[in-house]
Amino acid sequence: MSTISVLQEGPVNALALNKDNSQVAIGGRNVFKVYSIEEDCFKEICNLRASKHLNLSFSCNDVAWSSTDDNYLATAATNGHVCVWNLTKSGKAMQEQVYQEHKRTVNKVNFHSSEPYRLISGSQDGTMRYFDMRCKAAVATFLSNTESVRDVQFSPHMPHTFAAVSENGSVQLWDVRRTEKCIQQFTAHSGPIFACDWHPEATWLATASRDKTIKVWDLTTSKPTLDYTIHTIASIGHVKWRPQRKYHIASCALVVDCSINIWDIRRPFIPFAAFNEHKDIASGVAWRGDSQVFLSTSRDCSLIQHSFKDASRPASKANIQALDISTKGNTLFGMRVPVSTNTTKPTGLMRKSSTSTISDQFHQSASVLHQFTHVSVCNDLSSFEFLAKNYILYGRSFPEMCEHNAAVAKECGKSNISTIWKIVNTMYGELYVKIQAMHNNGGLNLMNNVDASSTEKKNNDVVGEAAAAQFSSADDDVEGEDQVDHTAVANGYHTYNKYGHPKGDFSFGENELDLELDALSIDYRNGMRNQNQLQQQEDWTLPNEAFNIRHEIRDRSPPPEQFPNNNSPDFNDDSHSSTVDEQPTWLVSVSKIPPMPIWDPSASLIESLKHHAEKGDVQTSVSVLIVLGEHRKNLKTLDENTVTHWLMGYIQTLERFRLWNVKALVIELAWIPSISQMNQQSTRINTNCSQCLKPLQRSGWLCDRCHSTDASRCSICHQVVKGLYVWCQGCSHGGHLMHMQEWFSKNKQCPTGCGHLCEYR
Amino acid sequence: MSYQDDEESVPYDDHPNSFPKNFGYGQYEGEQDNSLSPTGEQKPRILLMGLRRSGKSSIQKVVFHKMSPNETLFLESTNKIVKDNINNSSFVQFQIWDFPGQIDFVDSAFDPHMIFGGCGALIFVIDVQDDYSDALLQLHSTVTQAYKTNSNIKFEVFIHKVDGFGDDSKMESQRNIHQTATESLIDAGYDQIHLSFHLTSIYDHSIFEAFSKVVQKLIPQLPALENLLDILNTNSAIEKSFLFDVVSKIYIATDSTPVDMQSYELCCDMIDVVIDVSYIYGVREDQEAAFDEKSSSLIKLNNGTVLYLREVNKFLALVCILREDNFEHKGIIDYNFLCFRKAIQQVFELRNKTNQMLNMCNVASSPIMNGNNLVDDNNEEILNDEDN
């Protein structure tokens, strides 16, 4: 069955299939025809408007085909007539019955599903009429007491019941034998209802309304329950359940949307399938008894048979991830997860997944919905304290510290800071060590060989490597690996074989450079990147060979003021470095393998640290710098004053939070002398003389100014206090701890009578 | 407290923002004038009732006096019964009695016959944003009292101020009010009373639509008009047509296809545009009305739709929505329109004749007219147009 269509001379309002689905009748304002449905085309059997005496009864709002007798058609006309047509006759006799009972337009006619000759009509005048084709007048009239009835449908389950929907949004159930009152009435929509359809198997009634919803009501009990709601983009004019698919329903819109949508009622926001063949809004849908084929008519004057295999699946084009952020910063994120991973627990607070084993493929999927709420406990103050207390700044390996700190930051809700820790870890972590090591290993290895002979040289080298390669903290660790890699890498990369070979060997055959200075061969690589620093090292005696890394760093990047001649080139001059600049190309020529590119992350890191510091978060900047340890010296463009400033800022903030331990730790770990010296300062606090209120500089019991020992006397017992002396910083009076405790348990003022309201706690 | 029986003394006409009483339409001087209003008592009346501050005056001002919804905030509460005669249209001749909410008119001091006697419809306004349990009690007593006096009254309940409500809560309150009100009537033994419910708000067009439906119920010619519009649509390839009361933008009738809210709003806006523009450019010095028999307008939208407005009579306008390619046959549409207008006039004449006849017979109520005969008369004429 393929998609076929036929064009009419006017808009088509309705269609009806005969009982064996082989023929279709269509009706409209200017159209009234019967077609037989062939394999690949529609064949016109009869045109009921062929008669010369046309009147308004020939233009129909709705068409129905008797479900028992193939020869009978019924139509609803805009002038209030209900006509019954006998297809076996011809000419004027075809119009077998004309019921002129409705005062206004008839919107719908519906044949009874089992009783022949019986049909019902619903009209704009708010009445429904029950006809027997053998009678000249209506058998029964039902007054709905509503504005106008838009649709009437006999129930397929209860032979005497029919449903009527009306423009005031109410649904009524009637028994054809009781005309005085409906069995049941309920308000289903907030706008006019335009269509309804009984489910062929379940006791569901679907209603479609101008309020842009299709609702599915369960009518098994006396109180109807709303089982499903489908939200559409436009008012819905018609609905029809799909046969053999319990949850599928076809709908066509009244305005805007020209496509026919097939919905799965369990998925109410996106159609299961859509048919976009029509150019104007569709006016009717009828299934050909089969779930794969249906016919539709449209205002664009066409009749189309749709085949399900030609459907477009809007769901497949839909974005399967959704994100929204509320005004309060809560974030909702929905995404699809593979069915197999259904059991994995998402990290979010909420989880909603739907799985089903129905054959429809899209139900085989699951989705998760994460709700990320803004964690209010982590405001800036408490998180500062939390982070300060929980960061690990020393004592473990670099990656470990980074990971720990990242976890701490995340726990606190600071995911951006957590990310920074992770990035820092990646940039300077183990992987990086390896890469750098590969770059370095020629030098390192050879350096190890020379190592024993010259400690000074080694030291130079270490600095040089670090400067060149951005990394050196794990020198000792990587050496083992370097040994292994040596043979492979030594050929491939910068083979600084000058170390291993006699110096004269350095000149390659094609080397055009005049390498005259031996010194150059020692540090030509260093000179490339960090000439100045190297020079520093060169002319500075190295005192701390055996010291731990921290001291080494501090010593190597001293504050500028301590080394005023820092920048003066006294060993290498610029000409050397310029020649060296070109050298690597020649060195590389030893092997065909290109060097692995080295990305220098320090610039980005500095940028991000500065960003945080500017935002007022020196904590992150300082902590990262401390944890970086030796890698710090790669951050060459970070100027010392800024760092000092950050450190001071952080220390002051810590003081305000009374985080003395952390403060002391930071000062101790600080690599800038002016900061680390802070711990060297005296922590002594002088007591004041109780008479002149000046600090007692020399000793605790004798005031140099008034030469009295009054200062150390207890205000209560007037004895000189030896041992614990408690005093008020406000008025400088004090005394024995026990005495003062006793006094202040009863009084608030100072025991000396000076009038000060001492606060003793 | 006194009723303002004298129609000439309009209590609130001097309100700064309200339109003049004649809305700039001039005096209605049709030949039908005398016959249309034999006596003031026979005009069908619409009563507007409800608790105080439920929005009755605002509804009236917005619908019939073109007040902007925002300005209704400054309306003072009504403390006497205000009668407003909407008699500028040959179709809508209604009195709206805006009862002050705090009056207990069921009190024996008030004559129920006076109030409900000639009343066609009773609109009871419930403020849904408020606690409406009192309103429901009031509704019950009002409806039963009115029904006892005049059983022909149509009862309309406006569930008002639904703006800002979600669809679900709208539904919920409608269902709740419907159920409570209906059950209390049934309990009291008035199960023959039928209440219609409308969800309304003055901030959108729902109040106009609700009023349209109320007014339509009071127009006995509605089936005939609807039929005429259907025929016009069929033969002119018009998608949707409304017969508007120009003043209030209430639609007197529309064809039988479902009313889409957007199209209705579009047509309302078009009427505003036409009136405003013709007020500026189309009014000569010797005439006051901005809307006359030459009024017509054509707006082409960029989605291939055409809005077409034609004057039907002094107070009615036909607004059609049709596709641009169907508008090529403008000649046929215009001719069909002329037939349509003639038919409408015949409807009026028939009514006037019956009215006159009834006056002679001294029968007070107006019978429901059978539209079918009339439509058949016109059918052939319009159908023939198509062949031309």
From TrEMBL, chain A:
Residues 554-582 are annotated as: Disordered. InterPro entries: WD40/YVTN_repeat-like_dom_sf, WD40_repeat_CS, WD40_repeat_dom_sf, WD40_rpt, WDR24, WDR59_RTC1-like_RING_Znf. SUPFAM superfamilies: WD40 repeat-like (SSF50978). WD repeats lie at residues 99-141, 142-184, 186-227. PROSITE patterns: WD_REPEATS_1 (PS00678), WD_REPEATS_2 (PS50082), WD_REPEATS_REGION (PS50294). Signal peptide: none annotated. It comes from the Eukaryota. Keywords: Metal-binding, Repeat, WD repeat, Zinc, Zinc-finger. Residues 711-759 form the WDR59/RTC1-like RING zinc finger domain. Belongs to the WD repeat WDR24 family. This is GATOR2 complex protein WDR24. It comes from Nicrophorus vespilloides (Boreal carrion beetle).
From TrEMBL, chain B:
Pfam families: Gtr1_RagA. Transmembrane segments: none annotated. It is found in: Endomembrane system. It catalyses: GTP + H2O = GDP + phosphate + H(+). Residues 1-41 are annotated as: Disordered. Gene3D superfamilies: 3.30.450.190, P-loop containing nucleotide triphosphate hydrolases. This is Ras-related GTP-binding protein C. SUPFAM superfamilies: P-loop containing nucleoside triphosphate hydrolases (SSF52540). Its main location: membrane. Belongs to the GTR/RAG GTP-binding protein family. Signal peptide: none annotated. Keywords: GTP-binding, Hydrolase, Membrane, Nucleotide-binding.
